Amino acid sequence: MLAVDAGNALFETAFTLNPNSKAKAELILKSMGELKTAAMAAGARDLTMGPEFLAQTARRAGVPVLSANLTKEGKLIFPASTVVTVNGVKIGLLGISPAVTLERFPGVHGEPPVRAALEEAKKLRGKVDLLVALAPISWADALQLSKEGGTLFDLIIQSSESRGLGVMQHNDRGFVLSAGERGRGMGAVELDLSAPGNGPLVDLGEIDRAVMRRRNLESQIAQVQARVAAEKDPGVLKNLQQAVVSFRDQLKDLNASAAAGQAKGAHTAHLVVQYLDASVADDPEIKAQVDSIK
Amino acid sequence: MNRARSILLLLAPAIALTTAAAPAPKKLTLAFSGDNGGEIAPCG
Description:
The structure holds two protein chains of two kinds.
Chain A: E1 2-5, H1 21-34, E2 39-41, H2 50-61, E3 65-66, E4 70-72, E5 75-76, E6 81-86, E7 89-95, E8 108-110, H3 113-124, E9 130-135, H4 139-149, E10 155-158, E11 168-170, E12 175-178, E13 185-192, E14 201-203, H5 204-230, H6 234-256, E15 267-275, H7 284-293
Parallel strand pairs in A: 1-2, 2-3, 7-9, 9-10, 10-12, 14-15
Antiparallel strand pairs in A: 4-5, 4-8, 6-7, 11-12, 13-15
Chain B: H1 3-21, E1 27-33
């Protein structure tokens, strides 16, 4: 198990006067440290109290912060990336920040994130089995990163704009996925890289959906064919026959698609979502700390 | 030496080689969170 945070974790807004905000941010980082979070990206709403606060509090909590493009007077504030090994899999984690100028913190800038991420990814790609970008940037920017990155990234985990969990959008090699919003859930990608080689990931969810769609089409074809056999009206009969042709064409396209037969011997990914609703019990110790802040 | 035992002895090196050569499955779960926005509890 490897835990990461894609950023925008600590504050509700990029500026706050709420006296509880600092204590909340400290508790969040402390909890992330206890979860052995391998890295987090520095999002705009992690920098509300400045990069110094983030750096010091994260260091105390034992949470590595990454950003390939957040600079102070032209120098990177945080490391751009880190490499961790889990079960023999070398994983490159790369963090970026949005393109921002933090006026309250002179000299601090978020340089263009896509360019910085691509430069760092090119350095890492040949050294790791899996390359993951932690991206607290807009979905549009994440898609641009995916497009310009081509085959560089396996996973781009996007984290802003309150996008829900549950979608993995396919790119050339890997996937862009949103990290969730307001702590309502956690995502997990179950990865199997046991097959030889360094091929692209195949989404097992996509294969499951293709199997289900094939079954539906086969069932629809059988139903319409039964109606064709019994139908006497030439006009209706013609429509039904056209429907069968359409369903068969869809089935043919589906069978020809790569997703249908790629799981065996491929590197696979399967997205699992756990919503943190009433079915998940509170941790008494953390709840007491939360209650003391609220 | 009975027949079963002699077959096992013959196969032992091959079995040992196979066991040693079998690569460990490279599996992992990447758990992720994001865009938490300072939330520490429902509605806050």
